[in-house]
Amino acid sequence: MILNSILPVETSNLASAATSIKRTPSEVTQSFSSFLSDAISQVDAQEKQAQALNTKFMLGEVNVDELMVASERALLSLQLTTQVRNKAIEAYQEIMRIQM
Fold it and tell me: Is this structure's pTM higher than 0.90?
């Protein structure tokens, strides 16, 4: 049995982003920081789930297809996180190159 652990987009985050114009920069930064922390913890949870399924597979409790799906999902999440990090670093470096 394969469970879909892809979470839907929460509209509460979108609503808070729309009202972020009225918030102070420190509040917006804190909100963005918590968003990133939540995303990284979800990636970590997927990694742990894949490891747990790997252990269960070794004991014969899980089918190979469940293990492969969980492993690929964790791998794709990690790759996406890495690419987002790379783009954020590139954007920061580009901003630092701007001369005023």
Answer: no
